[in-house]
Design a protein that fits this description.
This protein is of the alpha+beta class. The protein has a domain at 38-180 and 247-291 and 303-312 and 331-344 and 386-479. It has twelve helices and 24 strands. It has helices spanning 2-31, 97-111, 134-147, 157-174, 262-274, 304-320, 349-358, 369-384, 413-422, 444-449, 452-455, 463-479; strands at 38-46, 54-55, 62-63, 66-67, 72-80, 83-90, 118-122, 177-187, 193-194, 196-199, 204-206, 215-218, 225-233, 238-246, 257-258, 279-284, 290-291, 326-327, 334-343, 388-397, 402-406, 410-411, 427-431, 440-441. A hairpin with a 4-residue loop joins β13 and β14 (238-246). α2 runs parallel beside α4 (157-174). It is globular. 46% of the residues are buried.
């Protein structure tokens, strides 16, 4: 009887041991994804300053009266094996190299993502805050001299933004889960428009106005591509968010309320299909010379209704393209990048003297618009205190057919088109205003023609052509 009991007990112990081993092996196999399994996550965070803070986008001192829709920073973190990247998009007119350098370094320290694998881009919303800018410096200085402090700056926005950017990258990184990416490029009919035009007087004009009978023809091409990246959480079997890239200035609202401009309405359209928690990131394509204004008709071009109409149109294009998006079934994440030291333009003594007089007249309607532009430019270049400026080019491979190229500044559309044409990848998405915004990068042709964008450029002619050459070289290296 005793032997039977002992044998039974031994059998039970063996059964429990085997069952336990089997269960733990199953748990390990389900928790540990295959080495090449793609993981992804998205996160967003509020980056809206308080009311009263100065707004960016124009030359006069514009103070925010409230919030139409909160400004956000949205992060996409992707991981495959030891390779990890972070793509961040902010509802701002631009970002300074100072802020992105600090935020990328801090995020890298927390997450382990290499600094070179992090890109922080701006959507180019003209209804975001003014910071790290010559205009802000002089407005701030005048306020301190008058009041003893600056009543418009309830927070120091650069520090606030750095902390938020670091946090949103960390949040996405902490939520990585097995995922699937779907990518594609759709076509947006009707918009955008090139805002530079040849005129009957032989010159090129910037935004010459609707129904202007002196217009001959556009001075450059447009880009109708809509780059799309969708992120699906495989555990939840749900699309959690995505990236839309389109080349058109986010300057359709104006006014004094904080707003992400038309990308906000892209989000609202997509949320109607994907749910209220869908995170809609937006990247500005090469839109330095593109906007929403059709000069051939007389119609409203500013305001929330215009922004809503544009956002809805682009959002519907993204939804209609869902059936054509290609799943990235064999991801091969990889990153290449390089920082070039490119020459800044020179500032003459005469330009600097005029700038120091005119900088306090930016709100004066009697001062010529181009005098304001030249004043800000001359003081900006002088403040930089160097003959060259670091310009970083990054390229990200998602799979054998799909890549993303990221460039700093407001890039002319010709450069984005050239990169896509020469890229060895079937689907190449080009994003501008990444990591820094030293104003416009026009083509050599545009520099000869003149007008606003060339006056408001900071780097010497030829910079854009160098950036294209570099991006294409890096893309070809990724393809090998």
């Amino acid at each position: 009887m005793k032997v039977v009991i002992q044998n039974s007990l031994l059998t039970l112990v063996l059964f429990l041991f085997v069952t336990s081993c089997s269960t733990s092996q199953h748990a390990r196999s389900s928790d540990n994804a295959p080495p090449n399994q793609l993981k992804a996550a998205m996160a967003e965070i509020d980056i809206t300053p308080p009311a009263g803070h100065r707004m960016a986008g124009y030359y006069d001192e514009r103070l925010a009266t409230g919030t139409h829709d909160p400004l956000k920073a949205k992060a996409i973190v992707l991981q495959q094996g030891s390779e990890k990247i972070a793509l961040v998009f902010c509802d701002l007119v631009g970002l300074s190299l100072n802020i992105t350098t600090n935020a990328r370094a801090a995020a890298s320290k927390i997450t382990g993502i290499p600094v070179s694998h992090i890109v922080i881009a701006a959507t180019h919303s003209h209804t975001g805050p003014l910071f790290d800018d010559v205009r802000r410096f002089y407005f701030h200085k005048a306020a301190v001299e008058k009041y003893g402090k600056d009543p418009q700056e309830k927070i120091y926005y650069p520090k606030f933004l750095e902390e938020r950017l670091t946090k949103v990258i960390a949040q996405a990184n902490n939520n990585l889960t097995p995922a699937e990416l779907n990518a594609g490029v759709a076509t947006q009919e009707g918009i955008p428009y090139n805002r530079r035009y040849y005129m009957k007087n032989g010159r090129v004009a910037f935004n010459p106005g609707q129904l202007n009978t002196n217009i001959v023809s556009p001075a450059g091409p447009v880009d109708h591509d809509v780059g799309i990246l969708e992120v699906t959480n495989l555990k939840k079997n749900k699309t959690i968010g995505g990236l839309t890239v389109f080349a058109m200035h986010a300057d359709t609202i104006g006014g004094t309320e904080w707003s992400a401009d038309y990308p906000f309405f892209i989000q609202q359209t997509l949320r109607k299909s994907f749910g209220p928690n869908y995170i809609s990131a937006f990247g500005a394509g090469t839109c330095g010379d593109l906007n929403q204004i059709n000069v051939n008709v007389k119609e409203p071009v500013k305001g929330f209704e215009v922004a809503e109409s544009l956002g809805n149109r682009i959002g519907k294009t993204v939804l209609n393209a869902q059936k054509d998006l290609q799943p990235i079934t064999q991801p091969t994440l990889s990153v290449k990048g390089i920082t070039l030291q490119l020459p800044l333009q020179d500032v003459s003594a005469e330009d600097l003297e005029a700038a120091q007089k005119n900088i306090y007249r930016l709100g004066d309607d009697k001062l010529d618009f181009y005098a304001k532009v030249r004043a800000v430019k001359a003081l900006d270049l002088t403040t930089r205190g160097t003959k060259t400026w670091p310009m970083e080019v990054q390229v990200f491979r998602l799979d054998a057919d799909t890549a993303i190229a990221c460039l700093p500044a407001e890039i002319f559309v010709e450069f984005g088109l050239a990169i896509k044409k020469q890229s060895p990848f079937k689907k190449t998405i080009v994003i501008s205003i990444c990591n820094d915004r030293p104003c416009y990068i026009p083509t050599l042709k545009a520099f000869k023609e003149g007008s606003y964008e060339t006056v408001n450029s900071r780097l010497k002619p030829g910079t854009g052509e160098t950036l294209v050459e570099t991006a294409v070289k890096l893309l070809k290296e990724l393809k090998e």
